[in-house]
Design a protein that fits this description.
By secondary structure, the chain is of the alpha/beta class. It is built from eleven helices and 16 strands. This is Alcohol dehydrogenase zinc-binding domain protein.
Length: 333
């Protein structure tokens, strides 16, 4: 089958389009013919070797962590899906490979595709949707009337998280560039900080939750806008001890994670707030809840550009620029 393959870490010329064997179908697996795949910064970070200590993939590796397509075949233990179903998923972190003609995904990580979306739109949802859900609903327990700051409101996670937070009934602030201020307001943001003109920490205060996807400088500034008891949740690091424990890492790597996050955890404690790192996990159950919100019109996907599969390298380069509004997708069809 055709696939976009990572052969060497840390080099952009270490990826290529080539042929790979069809994936093995386990008893609990669903084999999907890929129609479209979302492109994420996570793909670039894996390509560059940033996660090789905690996610020791065997190379060559097929990249891609968002998939939408049609079920071709199911394993003998699969009960929820059948051939011909239109589905979407964020495959488990150990079984990525959406940039290919076919991918095998565990039944538990899969959901029927939203009926109202095209394959390209559906492929834009799983990773950012699950990230926003697990940050706001599962970890922060965001409630009506609470105040949340969502950084990078025009990005993939940001565009989804703003809509989800407004659905919950929260008051939403976000940061973005001048060109996107009016656009993120239309997504539902109540307060928009143009980071090219203003410092958010000088404008915002007494927030319950901050979702950070940016750099360490922004992370530290975010502590200042939280009220006592508030939560700072970061999807861009640094990883914390709970993350190391969740992945079952060695004692050495647990110590490394503790040291990496020591400063921000200490500063958070001194301000009577909490810090936690989120590395999103696959979940078919949560995707089904997201599907209901999409099909009812509560949340709409935001797709910036769709690239043909042959231009996957260019699609990743475009995501790397940080200028995409919403998500970037590659199509196999």
């Amino acid at each position: 089958m055709r696939a976009f393959i990572l052969e060497r870490y840390g080099r952009k010329d270490g990826v290529r389009i080539g042929e790979m064997p069809e994936p093995e179908l386990r008893d609990d697996d669903v084999l999907i013919q890929v129609h479209a795949a979302g492109v994420n910064l996570l793909d670039s970070k894996i390509r560059d070797g940033e996660f090789k200590l905690v996610l020791p993939y065997r190379l060559p590796l097929v990249l891609g962590s968002d998939v939408a397509g049609v079920v071709v075949r199911v394993g003998p233990r699969v009960r929820r899906f059948k051939a011909g179903d239109e589905v979407y998923a964020r495959p488990d972190k150990d079984r990525i490979g959406a940039f290919a003609d076919l991918i095998a995904v565990n039944e538990a990580d899969l959901s029927i595709k939203p009926k109202t979306l095209t394959m390209e739109e559906a492929a834009s949802i799983p990773l950012v949707g699950l990230t926003a859900w697990q940050a706001l609903i599962e970890k922060a327990h965001l409630a009506k009337g609470q105040r949340v700051l969502i950084h990078a409101g025009s990005g993939g996670v940001g565009t989804f998280a703003i809509q989800l937070a407004k659905h919950v009934g929260a008051f939403v602030a976000t940061t973005t560039s001048t060109a996107n201020v009016d656009w993120v307001k239309r997504l539902g943001a109540d307060v928009v900080i143009d980071y090219t003109k203003d410092d958010f920490e000088n404008i915002l205060s007494d927030y319950d939750v901050v979702i950070n996807s940016l750099d360490a400088k922004t992370l530290n500034k975010s502590l200042r806008v939280l009220k006592p008891g508030g939560q700072l949740i970061s999807i861009s690091g640094p990883p914390d001890p709970d993350f190391a424990k969740e992945l079952g890492l060695s004692l050495f790597l647990r110590l490394v994670m503790r040291l990496l996050s020591y400063r921000i955890r200490k500063e958070a404690k001194s301000r009577k707030v909490s810090y936690s790192f989120l590395f999103m996990r696959a979940s078919g159950d949560q995707l089904r809840q997201i599907t209901s919100l999409i099909d009812s019109g509560v949340i709409r996907p935001v797709v910036d550009r769709v690239f043909p599969f042959e231009s996957t390298r260019e699609a990743m380069a475009y995501v790397d620029t940080g200028r995409a509004k919403g998500k970037v997708v590659v199509t196999m069809r």
